[in-house]
Amino acid sequence: MWAASLLALAHGLLQAAPVAPSVRAEIDGLMAAMQASNCQFNRNGSWYEAAEAKAHLLRKLEYLEGKDMVKTTEQFIERAASTSSSSGKPYLVRCGGAAAQASQPWLSAQLQLLRAKPAAGR
Question: Signal sequence span per UniProt (predicted)?
């Protein structure tokens, strides 16, 4: 019984893997862009500063990595950074005096900007 439990645990640990370094670099770039933007992030009806949003999204990433559910940056945006896993409500981003918008298109646009930068500028 003990050996079977240990084997099951080991199997689960072997399946869970961190995202590829190139994907992690893009996710880190997105989080840095969000933090530098001074935008606010709405989660379940409350507004948070970018640093708090970053910490929350990285915790969600860690959870999803444990389930081997993130292989691309787009999956991170879709599965971790678009909606609340507890309420199902979409996350929002508000920058300056602009109207709030859904986080998914905002992060997708930031990803496109990040990818458009020359490699030397990253």
Answer: 1-16
More reliable by pLDDT, 42 or 13 = 42
Helices (H) and strands (E) counted in the chain, each on its own, are: 5, 4
- The residues, any chain, with a CB within 8 Å of residue 115's CB and separated by 6 or more, are 26
Enclosing H/E stretch for 110 = helix 103-116
Angle at 110 between CA 71 and CA 84, to 5 degrees: 60
Cβ atoms of residues 95 and 53 within 8 Å: no
- Here the tokens at position 122 are 């990253």
Q: Residue 7 pLDDT > 70, yes or no?
A: no
Taking only the tens place, the pLDDT of each residue in 61-89 is 999 999 999 999 999 999 999 999 999 99
